[in-house]
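Shipment paperwork, digital attachment
Item: protein structure file
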Amino acid sequence: MDVNGGGELHNNQFYQCEESKPLLGEMSDGHNNAKPGAGPCKRPLHHCSSSGMRYKLLHEGDIQVCVLKHPRTFLSKILTSKFLRRWEPHHLTLTDSCLSSATPTGYMETSLSYSSMEDLQLLSWDNAPKYCIQLSFPGGTVLLQAANSYLRDQWFHSLQWKKKIYKYRKVLNNPSRWDVVLKEIRALVDMALSSPLQDESIHQAPLHIISTLLAENSSLSAQDHENIIVAIAPLLENNHPPPDLCEFFCKHCRERPRSMVVIEVFTPVVQRILKHNMDFGKCPRLRLFTQEYILALNELNGGMEVVKKFVHSMHGPTGHCPHPRVLPNLVAVCLAAIYSCYEEFINSRDNSPSLKEIRNGCQQLNDRKPPMPLRLLRPEPPTPPPANLLPLATTPSPPHEILVELERNNNSANVKKKAGPAGGDSEPNLIDCLLVSPAVNTLSIQLPAQADRVLGCFALILKMLSDYDDWRPALASLLQPIPFPKEALAHAKFTKELKYVIQRFAEDPRQEVHSCLLSVRSGKDGWFQLYSPGGVACDDDGELFASMVHILMGSCYKTKKFLLSLAENKLGPCMLLALRGNQTMVEILCLMLEYNIIENKDTQLQIISTLESTQVGFRMYEQLCDRQRELKELQRKGGPTRLTLPSKSTDADLARLLSSGSFGNLENLSLAFTNVTSACAEQLIKLPSLKQLNLWSTQFGDAGLRLLSEHLACLQVLNLCETPVTDAGLVALSSMKSLCSLNMNSTKLTADTYEDLKAKLPNLKDVDVRYTEAW
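Attachment content:
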């Protein structure tokens, strides 16, 4: 009998792929303290099937069934006779342990267990029934007949897989000798790799079996652990490890961070997770494993240099990372690690179970640990020296500790002074310490040594991520909501490390990056507020704050709204920095005066005094006074009502023309087919009577539109035909309620922005949107 059924599927040849090199091979010199007796840690060769038919794993299906209760020695004679037994149609289900029918009658009255199945083969000789599979059981044979050869082979491979995986699950569920277990694991891995079935469970089922084996046998030696990890490595090349296996990998990273397995086996697994994982929320242990792997790299001799090489390997050698999921996943890992450093404090604050308690099933309030005190250090105020001693003879007293514990029944905090003199000012409670306030600058949180190392490691990773130009826009967007616990923002070490990241955002000329320094919504603080003088993270007397203001003022944020927010919230710091000669702050104060942001006369005089107190301020204030005199002359009634500039005119030509006389009556200005840009908006906003503006075929862009929308509220007709404006600038026109005619022909207007403008501009009657997306 030809048990191979003449099928080409049973003659599949296999070849061995070249052993892949460790992706972090250059780091090998960073862990030379590994034990030499641990044995080689080479990854097994991945057996890749040659080209051939592929099948989906069957879980159920319709098939013909025939049972022959005859000795197997007479089988061929029976099968070739014309008196073949009858066939019954059944809908069979391939469960994990048996083959059962949806209608348990006739031949399939009882399920067929895989454990009692002695043999499984194809029938393919001339007189045999077509497309049959033979299942041999004690005392008889079951024949399954499919509709065609493909279905027959699909049933054959599915039954074969179910039978073998059942056997391995049973064998590895009760291990006796670990040398035999390791051999069985290798055979299981080879079977999964060589199977012609294509299904997620083909690789996941062996991983689940092995993870269950490891979870139930925690007393294995370290060498056995490494041997098992090496054996299953080929299965992890294209599959994420299941949760229990992630827990085992985390334990190995914590206990043996210098093991060769971490570099040679875990590195490609973690790289695949970071490149392809879409949601850590569905499997948080993948994130935890990635976190422990990075901490294991940090334990090598190279330390953070090894981690830096790993981050670079994830980005790639080019200027653009080809994997869009790497950055969000790395940021998610960093945020989770940083939160874990303050987990006990956060749980004490909000009375929520920790991740560790959730994993351990500790959900009852009685099982919870008591709140962990938050250690805050505050310098002791100096004690006045005795009258008979000079001030130089005084000895600085050590800082005293404050133990802060949160009560579970209310939101108040009990503050106890552990050391220091009695009396004096009352100490701030925990909530006051963690809120953004100047008082928090004198406080610092003490973390355990291990948590402090974790915090330093992942804060440095955020710094590394900010060094990549292509990652910086997305990183700024991810960090814009300030996704850190309040305890971290009160930790001087963390905010000092994070300051580098914010500085990188402030130095980036791209608007999409530095605009993320502002709050994500009104009423919520952003990085701009946190690192401003008086903010929780400010430790440099406003140097970073000045850099942020400079970059924001140099972009589209040179607007009344931004200046108003500075005048309302940060006028004092701005004046102080201007008094110290900071040029950016001097420009800010001049603009506040020029745009009439400050209404209070006393405050205006104080700003003028501040400007006149420095050389750079005095010079800029004189220039402001000159501009104001020119503006007064420009806006004086008189001059033409209509004006057209010659073609090829520039911004400088327009400024020269408007400075030559009075244009208080100018209502219609045509700059069509000139070379003016958004810079000319500074001149256009000085025309108080302007009602019609023609910018056809100019280089006037979004930044200019934003400035016009704030100052030319009376504009009625605007022609933007063939200009480079986009939705980013056109959306600002919604504040110009007097617009009745708007030409956006041949611009980058979209349909959504057009609908928004129509809804917000009630007087808009004449609109031209030809040759746009909204047409």
